[in-house]
Amino acid sequence: MQQNQPVAYASRAMSSSEINYAQIEKELLAIVYGCERFNMYTYGAEIEVLSDHKSLEIIFKKPLFKVPPRLQRMRLRLQRYNLKERYVPGKFLYIADTLSRAIVQSSVPTDDDMHHDMEHFIHSVILDLSISDMKSMELQQLNCNDPAMQLLHREMKEYATQYGINIITTSPTYSQANGLAEKAVNIVKNLLRMECNLNEGLMEYCNTPISNFPYSPNQMLFSRRTRTRVPVHLLVLVPQNCHDVPELLEKPGDKHLSRAIVTGKHDTPRSYMITDESGREYRRNRRHIHLTQEPLVTILDNDLTDDSQPETMQSIVSSLSVTRESDANLEPDLPDTVATSVPRRSTRIAVNVCNQESTTFLRAKNCAELYTRGQTISGVYAIDPDGKGAFDVYYDQTTTGGGWTVIQKRQNGPVDFNRTWDDYTNGFGNFLIGEFWLGLNKISRLTQNETENKLRVDVVASNKAVYGEYASIGIGDRNSNYTLSLGNFSNNNVIHDGLKHHKASQRPLIWYLG
Question: What is the pLDDT of residues 195-215, one digit of tens each?
Fold first, then answer.
């Protein structure tokens, strides 16, 4: 909706599996469908979703790991949108679409023999239709009369150079840039052809509503219709203010948005050079470019590393998780999350820029720098701590004010944590399913900096959550076998220090893995 008026409707039938969804899952599925269906207008803009389902408001306020798996997947699909959900009782939703929920199930009959008939018809062609000499001459004549061809003609170029005329062409695939002048010439020709009195014809034209627009030029200029020879009621001539109508929704499939970065301004007006993620350069008009607050990141859909190593070892969770044996209040096999963060401080905000000599993006060094840049949405982002290459991490904005880098998350799900040493060095798991280990080499790069990092260990039960924090954490490089060093431990007298036997010895971390 724009200006409290609906501008588009969309609906679809649910699949056989979606019909069995719970009601809250169907409501969230409708929001996902609406955002993705109108992605051309929802991406990069602030969106407010009005829903009469009160439970959705609670689901959006919960941390992602506390949401059921099916709702987690839907919320991950909404991470790219600047979305805010607001509960509105059903009696205040005046445009609720009731008929779309009563869909008549019907199937379109298909003819299996049609495919064979089409192939038979295509292979029956023995001669193509050649163009006649008359049509060839007509095509040449049309090319000679085409204004665009005349501008590109060699003689026209020489004439423009001689008299200092600068010929400017429109951006590729955007001929509308010169369409206004062409349309004006066409309108004047029609008026001269049909009207003997040019002034009367111009008055009738200015009093006629524009196509696909409810107002005429005179209404927009004078806020009223002008009197012509066409008889109308006097109330029609009463002045009234008219407002611009919101831009109508375009047909799906007309345009496609892809990530790119502006590298510079072209010589022609309102044209810019952009570079996409594959490195290809394009020239586009300003209206082709949609500005978004979302940083340029890479979303991982696959595992971090290959899980093909046959050898196994004791899981690193035995060292980096808390001791739960003596606490009878917590249930066994509880999901835990290990996160590290750089304390927030006053830093200079870096902006993603690119010049024509280089296409290197200025990435954040850690998640704390993402926080200082104003990033408020949890998700997968690419960072580069030491300039040796970027890698993807999960950025947590919901825990204790945000700015945390999650290095381990385990919920006793499909990911096996009984891995080899190489697996724990390189990392494994998947961000999207919520179980992963970031990797010792990446954690070492994160902690080897001038700032002090914190280590937070969270243990979450069905209705209870406890945590502990280490004042500092440092992990050495590969040559030192990733030596572990920890600061003072603080807790809420519920959780125990699971690494108290290791932080004083300063031995390599490989000793703690069994």
Answer: 778 888 888 888 888 777 778
Q: How far apart are CA 271 and CA 267, in angstroms?
A: 7
- Per-residue confidence band for 421, with pLDDT thresholds at 50, 70 and 90: confident
DSSP labels, 38-91: THHHHTTSEEEEEES-HHHHHHHHS-GGGS-HHHHHHHHHTTTSEEEEEE--GG
List strand residue ranges (DSSP E) for 199-305, in order: 260-265, 271-276, 281-285
Q: Beta-carbon neighbour count of residue 112 at 10 Å?
A: 6
Q: Are 452 and 473 in contact (CB under 8 A)?
A: no
- Per-residue confidence at 385, pLDDT binned at 50, 70, 90? confident
Radius of gyration (Cα) for the chain, nearest Å? 32
For residue 87, the tally of other CB atoms under 10 A from its CB is 14
pLDDT tens digits, residue range 348-381?
222 233 333 333 446 788 888 888 877 778 888 8
* Contact status, residue 226 vs residue 206, Cβ threshold 8 Å: yes
Highest-confidence range of 45-59, 120-134, 280-294, 365-379, by mean pLDDT?
Answer: 45-59
DSSP symbols for 290-323: ---SS-------S-SS----------THHHHS--
SS (H, E, C) 315-329: CCHHHHCCCCCCCCC
* pLDDT tens, position by position, 321-343: 333 333 333 333 333 333 333 33
pLDDT of residue 494: 62
59, 23 contact by CB (below 8 A): no
Q: Are 212 and 248 in contact (CB under 8 A)?
A: yes
Quote the tokens at residue 477: 């490089």
Alpha-carbon 389 to chain mean position: 24
Least confident of 162-166, 224-228, 313-317, 460-464: 313-317
CA angle, residues 451, 454, 458, in degrees to nearest 5: 160
Distance (Å, whole) CA 409 – CA 342 = 19
H/E element holding 486?
strand 484-486
User: Is residue 52 pLDDT above 50, yes or no?
Assistant: yes
Helix (H) or strand (E) holding 408: strand 404-410
Helix, strand or coil for residue 186? helix
Write out the two tokens for 279: 């490195």
Any idea which residue has 């809420």 for tokens?
492
Rounded Cα distance between 427 and 407, Å, is 9
Q: Is 364 exposed, middle or buried (0-12, 13-18, 19+ CB in 10 A)?
A: buried
- What domains sit in the chain, N to C, each tagged with a CATH number? 18-127 (no CATH), 175-242 (no CATH), 261-288 (no CATH), 407-502 (3.90.215.10)
